[in-house]
Amino acid sequence: MRVTNKMISDRVLFNIQTSLKRIAKLHDQLSSGYKVRYPSDDAVVAKRASDILTRKRELEQFQRSVDHVQTYVNAYDSALQTVSSITQRLRELLVRAANGTLSKAEREAIAEEIDKIKENLVEVANTRIGNEYIFSGYDVFSQPVENENGTWKISTLPASDKSRSILVLGHSIDYGVTASEVFELDSGKNVFQMLEEVSATLRSNLNETQISERVSNVFLKELSSFEERIIKTIGKVGGVSRFIDMVNSRVQDLDFFFTEYLSKERDADITELVTDLAMQQSVLEAALKSASRVLQATLVDFVR
């Protein structure tokens, strides 16, 4: 077969172009840090990387949901611990009020402190995170405890008075606590109404024996019921908190695993790339020197 100068020229230029493409690809991998960016690089790895990235985005959403729930659970725990501390002081006051030896001025002082306790409990019941009331169930923008005609009542509608939940990694987490779950008594009234009745009794014209009997037989029993409800709810919140910690740990482990796996699949070996790039640049330089000797000069090269 006859080899012409044009055939030699075309072949040399083709090889130089191929070498430039290899260098461009290595530069692209080196600058991006990825050996596989497009399906044309490696269809199987690209599909696998796409699936992993989708899974990582799901995990990021799960993480945001878990963080949101953890904020609420911490708020519930703080509020319930405050209520528990308040009930201890309330018990001290009721026990003192039941001893039957107090003067009217002393009963008035106890009644005033109980009124302050009631206001404090109302404030706790209407705790907010941002603009959301944490004890309002699903109706987070409505105040759960409101004053109606001088009496504090739980105003959450039955349809909204439910524990909120989220779905994370296939697990449904019920994390919400409602005002009725915490502040309603077994007798059907709420703790605010009970405290109003205590204050009214201490300020009434009943004799010491009648006041003592009412405090001992009614209010202290209702307080014990309220304390049991608080302890039960604190236990529930603690259980949710521990479960969230486990889910959060699982989400982080999965995210670490997918990140490591994704790195192994598509990340470039920088040391290997630098070595390959240096070799390809040497090959290109050698090809250019060889081409300068092989390609014949034409009249165009002498045109000024």
Quick recap:
By secondary structure, the chain is mainly α. It is 68% helix and 7% strand. It has helices at residues 5-32, 43-97, 104-125, 179-183, 191-202, 208-266, 270-294; strands at residues 128-129, 132-133, 145-148, 151-154, 165-168, 171-174.
Q: Could you explain how this protein is built, in words?
A:
GO terms for molecular function: structural molecule activity. Residues 7-138 form the Flagellin N-terminal domain. This is Flagellar hook-associated protein 3. This protein is mainly alpha-helical and 304 residues long. The chain folds into two domains: 5-51 and 267-302; 73-262, Up-down Bundle (f41 fragment of flagellin, N-terminal domain), CATH 1.20.1330.10. The protein has seven helices and six strands. It has helices at residues 5-32, 43-97, 104-125, 179-183, 191-202, 208-266, 270-294, and strands at 128-129, 132-133, 145-148, 151-154, 165-168, 171-174. Strands 1-2 form a two-stranded antiparallel sheet. Strands 3-4 form a two-stranded antiparallel ribbon. Strands 5-6 form a two-stranded antiparallel sheet. A hairpin with a 2-residue loop joins strand 5 (165-168) and strand 6 (171-174). Helix 2 (43-97) packs antiparallel against helix 3 (104-125) and helix 5 (191-202) runs antiparallel to helix 6 (208-266). The longest helix has 59 residues, at 208-266. The mean pLDDT is 84.
